[in-house]
Every structure is written in structure tokens, then in C-alpha cells.
Amino acid sequence: MNEASHQSFPEQPVARRPVSVESRNLGERANYAPDYIAFRNYSFYYGATQVLFDINLEIPERQVTALIGPSGCGKSTLLRNINRMNDLIDGIRHEGDLLIGRTSVYDPGIEVISLRKRIGMVFQKSNPFPKSIYENVIYGLRVAGRRRKSVLDDAVERSLKASALWDEVKDRLHESAFSLSGGQMQRLCIARAIANQPEIILMDEPCSALDPIATGKIEDLIHELKNDYTIVIVTHNMQQAARVSDRTAFFYLGKLVEYDHTDTIFMNPMEPQTEAYVSGRFG
Amino acid sequence: MNRFYLKELEQLRNHFLLMAEKSTEAVANAVIALEQSDPSLARQVIGADDELDQLEVAIDAEATRYITLRSPVAGDLRLLTVALRASQDLERIADEACSIAKRSLRTGEIPDPLDHGKIRLMADLALALMRESIDSLLEEDAERALAVLPKDKEIDRLHRDNYDYFSARIVDRPDLAKAYIELIFISKSIERIGDHATNIAEEIVYLVKGRDVRHSEEAKRP
Fold first, then answer.
1. N or C: which end of chain B has fewer CB within 10 A?
2. Which of residues 43-102 of B touch A (CB under 8 A)?
3. B24-37: pLDDT as tens digits
4. Domain containing A63 — which CATH number?
5. Does B1 fall in a domain?
């Protein structure tokens, strides 16, 4: 996306919809928290460069929230702030606050390591460790000091079943993870993420390197996982956002332009920028 | 692979079949209300129209949502376009049933017995076409749907007979002119129901074969 193409958008996009979208179709989920992850007047800088501008966004518990927008819009930065992955970069700073379960992730009493244990992450390119399938799944548990074989075996079976991979690998758990197909490796990474029983799973373009069949399996898996986990997914594939998410947030130039139920964003968005982006008229 | 959202497509299909069933029932009851001068049954048909309207709105919303969010292609996409178009036909069929029921309330007030001409014959044929169209959807049988198309001509012929017959009755019994005019309109409603049933059959052919037979020689074949 070049600067010229940006000019077709009205200037100063701002979110006019309420930042907290009223919940619906929640069925029996009585204890659902609509503001489980909450960005409050949140801005973020890489050195002198501001990449997120005054974001106010409430991400509901146990639903799938998709972050969409053109490259450089800040969606991956936003995602990586949820587990403070960006802390690893020199010169970063933020303004405002980011809360998970009403507690600031920047609270001095919060240990970053324990925060990250609560948040699994799946990346664009599957990144299994050069170990067996079994060892990949329980890697986090081993690091946490879990040794009992029965506990580890249970975790492997539970995680691989939850990631819809168990039936395909149960007879070769001790083979190298690199023997799996691309789609299987990505599901293995999801199994590894959920073995630690996190509350949140962050996904950064999890299907961009996969074929349509493997993508379909991951999407079905995301649909299943939201019963137990809060999922935030960054995707360039708008059809994927439409298919898998309950809420969609559209970002442009570091600003949250619009946030609403996914069907509203794709069928009747309020903002002209959103309309242009989701209908492919961007630029 | 059975994608998680395919159940939404199944729900839409079920809504369409429910609408088809209720439209058929409305036509059958409207004609019985006419024949038996049964105002209670006529009002039941009129009252049920709102539910059918709501089903059409629901089908529209479900189909539009599915097309927008689920990226359907091939047979799934055809089912959605068929549901959008054919539910309009079903809604119009229900409107015609409602119109028949309203007119039956007026003819029912006439103390003299009315000769209904070939209305029963037409209604049976139109109902048969509707059921054949719906069954061809259930069985995804394009040949069965194609066989529906020429039968509509028989309904058109019966309507012309009715028109001539009721016109002659008006000349014979000018005191019953209003009632026979109602019967001409009822006959026309049934003729339109036949047209809509035929439209649905054409849609089913498109659904199953992916071939649009509307306005084609194939559709006109006897």
C-alpha cells in the first residue's frame, strides 16, 4: 500500500461505533466478560515513530476477534502488545493502558513471564522446535518444571485432540515434528500453545502459508477453540476474518477505524474507509 | 471436511422447505375455505401470511449473510441464489392464497350456491406442481423439476375456460355478477400460483444442473 493510495480515504479516521460492542448470540455463556481484553486510550511508539493512536477497544472473552487492515496499519503491533512481545524491542513505549481481566498488563506486580504463560501465540510461519511431536507439545510444561509422565502424556493427548491433530499423529508421537505437513505443523503449534492451558490465544496470520484444505482445518479448529479460549487473530485474508470471527476491528494508519460484530463490518459498515477496504476498493 | 458453518446452509434449506410447506398448505386451505364457505379457515389463511412474510425475510437475511461471510461457491452458491429467488415465488404464492381467502369471505356471503367451474381442477393441478417442485428439491432431481414445466400450460387452459364460463354466468345471472367476478380473480390467482410453481421448478433445475432454463426452449417443451 503506497501513500498515494491512502489518499482515497477521508482523513482522520476515527472509531465512531462504541468501543464495546453489545454481546449477542452468547447462548448459555453466563459468565462472559465483554471487556476481557481492554485497550484504554492506548498509544504505542517504536522510538520516535507512533504506530498506534489512542486505541479504545474491548475484546470479549471466549470469542474470536479479528484484526484487519492494510500492511502497516498497526494490527500486528496491537496483537503483540497483548502478551508484551514488543517489550523485546528497544526503544518502545506506550501511553494509556491495556488490561486483561481488569488488571493492567503493565501493573508493576505483573511478571511478564507469567503473563505470557496465560497467553498462547501462533505465528504466520509454523515454528516447531527440532524435537519430536511429543516434546514440542510439552515443551512449555517441561520449562515450567513438570516431570510426571502421566501428566505430560495427558497434556499431549488433550492438546493434540483439542487441536484436531491427535488422530493423525497418535501413532507417531516420537517422530520429528518436521515430518508433519505445513498444516499439521501449524496445528502442532496450536497444540503447543494450548498445552499450557492459556486463557488467550493470539494468532498472527496463522494460515497465510497453508493450502485451502489446511486453512479450512485451522479455521474449524479456531471455531472449536473459542468455547474455551479468547482468540485474537490478525489476518490479511478478509474472507477468513468473515468466516471465523465474531467481532472485527478495522485499523488504518495506526487508528481503530471501526469495530463491530463481524457480520456488520462485512455487510453494513458505518465508516466509508471500512466499506472501501472490505469491498476491495481500497486505493 | 465438514466446515463448521455448513449447518447454517442446512438451516436455510430447512427454512425454505418450511416456507414451501406452509405456502402449499395456505393454497390448499384457501380453496377449501372457498368451496365450503368457511370464514374461519379463510381467516386462518389470512393470518398465516405474516409468518410466511417473516420466513421470506429470514431466508433473505440468512442467504445474504452466508454469501457475505462464508465465501460460498458452486452448489452452495446456487442453493443460496435459488433460495433468494424461489422464496420470493413462495411469498407471492402465499399472497395469492391470501387473496383467494379474502375473496372467499365475500363469495361466502352470497346466499345462492355458486358454480365454481373448474377451480378445484385448477387448484389440484397447481398444488401438484408445487409439491412436485418441492419434492424435486428434496431429491435434487432436475428431470422431475423439468417435467413440471409443461404442466403449467394445462392450468393456463383451465383458467381461460373458467374465464369464459364465469363471464357467461354473469350474463345469465347479473344479480351474481360480483360473486362471479370474484371467482374470475380467484381463477387468475390459481393461474399465477401455477406460474410461480413453475418458476421454482426452473430454479431447482439450476440448483441441480447449474443450467438456467428460464425462457429457454427446454422450458417450453411439451
1. C
2. 64-65, 68-71
3. 999 999 999 999 99
4. 3.40.50.300
5. no
